Amino acid sequence: MVSVAILGAAGGIGQPLSLLLKMNPHVTRLSLYDLVNVPGVAADVSHINTNSSVESHLDKQNLGAALAGIDIVIIPAGVPRKPGMTRDDLFNINAGIVRTLAEAIADHCPAAIIGVISNPVNSTVPIAAEVLKARGVYNPKRLFGITSLDVVRASRFVRDIKPSVDAAALRIPVVGGHSGATIVPLLSQAEPRVEFSQKEIEELTHRIQFGGDEVVQAKAGAGSATLSMAYAAARFTESLIRAISGEDVVEPAFVSLDADPRGAENIRALGAGSLEFFAVPVQLGREGVKRIAPVPSITPFERKAIEVASGELQKNISKGVSFTQKAKI
Length: 329
Ligand SMILES: NC(=O)C1=CN([C@@H]2O[C@H](COP(=O)(O)OP(=O)(O)OC[C@H]3O[C@@H](n4cnc5c(N)ncnc54)[C@H](O)[C@@H]3O)[C@@H](O)[C@H]2O)C=CC1
Ligand SMILES: O=C([O-])CC(=O)C(=O)O
Fold this sequence. Notes:
Elements: E1 2-7, H1 14-22, E2 27-34, H2 38-46, E3 53-58, H3 63-67, E4 72-75, H4 91-108, E5 113-116, H5 121-134, E6 143-145, H6 148-161, E7 174-176, E8 183-185, H7 198-209, H8 211-219, H9 227-244, E9 249-256, H10 261-272, E10 277-285, E11 288-292, H11 300-327
Parallel strand pairs: 1-2, 1-4, 2-3, 4-5, 5-6
Antiparallel strand pairs: 7-8, 9-10, 10-11
This protein binds 1,4-dihydronicotinamide adenine dinucleotide and oxaloacetate ion (OAA).
């Protein structure tokens, strides 16, 4: 019995994500919210013969009803990039959208687990945290920036150069954040282990860091990754649901290191320093973050990449925090 709300359900990610979650037998209630077109999406998806109920909630006056009683809220609401833009260029529009949605979550389902997809994730997650803190309902264990697409890309891109690897079974932790140089794949920690030359490591790292740009370029103005992102978000949601029902599942995600201060010590020592948020491998549990899983060791190349990531991340996090402070929630 798990109820899931998708905020931004009529968009490029929202539609295929609605489809994939309608196919998930553990979801019993699917609550779809958007400012446009959501009645059509909900009517369409509701004809699929799985047992879950599907609700359509159009426009802001129905946001409370969309959220009441919800266990997991996934947020793909917001504008996507066009060629030539960075994720940070989306800040001016998406920061306000995420703030409004986080306020409504605080009011209508404060105990829900939240997964933020809207970019720039490095800033929108701190914004959501500040809103929840200001409303007195913040639990760092329950707020996630969804970085699963970086992990999905990492295993697929390795398969492109190592055809004997099973892309679906390969696990590569990706730490840091979710934009360019803040994305740090730890190829040395691949499971099962894969041997790479230094040139392969450098090329793969760059490709994983800028994988989003490949899609933005190819879509040539029609948006960014939607189908692979919907797949990644559905996988993340499925992992949360398995964890809620008692299974041990590890998924990398961008979380507050306060969610598990002891587990975070290892990550801080690897180069995260005093940053409040960082993408880490998270052992999920009923509460959301059960534990930050340890990263046993990294190479000097990975340590350097984490140092570079941390400098940029600090700016992205501070930008989100000061946005909410200026806005007086
Ligand atoms: N975390 C990640 O790995 C990824 C994040 N993204 C981000 O996801 C976001 C959405 O991307 P797309 O679905 O392609 O965009 P889209 O433009 O196709 O869809 C966005 C949807 O959000 C809705 N929306 C806008 N303001 C809203 C509000 N205040 N309340 C509810 N709904 C609202 C729009 O009506 C639209 O249906 C973008 O910010 C994009 O950068 C995209 C790919 C990967
Ligand atoms: O590149 C973008 O703007 C969308 C995104 O976050 C990704 O595909 O990783």
